[in-house]
Amino acid sequence: MNAKQKRLVRELDLDSFPGELAKRRKRLGLSQTQLGEIIGKHFTVISEWETGRRVIFEPYMVHVSLLCLETLGADAVREALARRSR
What we know:
Blueprint: H1 3-11, H2 17-27, H3 32-39, H4 43-51, H5 59-72, H6 74-85
Helix pairs in contact: 2-5, 3-4
């Protein structure tokens, strides 16, 4: 694992991640449905993750997906999704 990967792992606080997930999703301007489409999960799964009703079995995958969205910008992702649905 390189230094950047180690930093990403250290940044993930599993205890506060459900609440952080909702904040980060909203900051990106994405609905639960849109985030679910991006990461391949149904919106009800996103909702249950955010409220803590469901355990996130892939927290690092979700964390890295959010980092990518934050880097690329949600607009770029929405445009890609729109092109895909045509």
